UniProtKB/TrEMBL annotation:
This is FCD domain-containing protein. Gene3D superfamilies: GntR ligand-binding domain-like (1.20.120.530), Winged helix-like DNA-binding domain superfamily/Winged helix DNA-binding domain (1.10.10.10). InterPro entries: GntR_C, TF_FadR/GntR_C, Tscrpt_reg_HTH_GntR, WH-like_DNA-bd_sf, WH_DNA-bd_sf. Keywords: DNA-binding, Transcription, Transcription regulation. CDD domains: WHTH_GntR. Residues 9-77 form the HTH gntR-type domain. It comes from Kribbella koreensis.
Length: 240
């Protein structure tokens, strides 16, 4: 297979996608060993250098683990119950990413709704602090990424539902994989807008208004998806 069939995506990204597909198709489980780098390049019809880069990227996002002298392995997730999800999600498949946004709406809107009725004062403070920190960090992608996760995790924790909390944490892991593979570690869209939306969600939760909190979270995810899709369109147009 040619290393770059799609002109808007770098070769390592395409090979990373092929590797994830290979893992799924072969039924490999967390802890299973993959063929060597050379063998993978031959299986996929790609070059050694781009295959090596794809392996590094997938290791960085927690999908693979490389052990010196031992080989390449499917990573073992910290949450063993998420094994099937880890094998299913393909972070560069735009249909999968769209499904991820759909799932986020269901899970995170409900988390915000429950947080507005269940959050303790200390949890409200944590949500507000994370929201305000994301505003201050919107010009620094790595710092924003940290506070963005802290904010969404704080909302989920304030919901009082441990299952929602676990689901939100796993969704953030999947989001991180897509961002790092599709945007070279960057984040799509306006971080300033996202940060201001965090503040609006925090204020709705602090006010104890479940409907407003749920709506604000849904709007936040809608905006994030729209900006994500615009970023993809911009990449396509840049190659025309």
């Amino acid at each position: 297979m040619p290393e770059n069939l799609d002109p808007y995506r770098p070769g390592y990204e395409l090979v990373a996608e092929q590797l994830v597909t290979y893992i799924v198709e072969q039924g490999l489980r967390p802890g299973d060993r993959l063929p060597t780098e050379k063998a993978l390049a031959e299986l996929l019809g790609t070059g050694r250098s781009v295959t090596r880069e794809a392996i590094k990227v997938l290791a960085a996002v927690g999908r693979l683990q490389t052990r010196r002298g031992a080989g390449i392995f499917v990573s073992v997730p910290t949450n063993q119950q998420a094994d099937d999800q880890v094998g299913y999600f393909q972070p560069t498949d735009l249909q999968h990413v769209a499904m991820l946004f759909d799932h986020r709406r269901l899970i995170e809107a409900e988390s915000a709704r429950l947080a507005a009725t269940s959050a303790r004062p200390a949890q409200v403070h944590a949500i507000r602090t994370a929201a305000e920190a994301s505003v201050a960090a919107y010009q620094d992608h790595e710092m924003f990424r940290q506070y963005d996760r802290t904010f969404h995790d704080a909302v989920a924790e304030a919901s009082g539902n441990v299952f929602l909390q676990a689901a939100v944490s796993k969704l953030r892991d999947f989001k991180e994989q897509s961002d790092r593979l599709l945007f070279a570690g960057g984040l799509p869209g306006s971080l300033e807008v996202a940060a201001q939306q965090h503040v609006h969600i925090a204020e709705s939760i602090a006010a104890g208004d479940p409907d407003k909190a749920s709506t604000a979270m849904t709007q936040h995810i809608d905006t994030t998806q729209a900006q994500f899709e615009q970023r993809i369109r911009d990449r396509l147009q840049a190659t025309q």
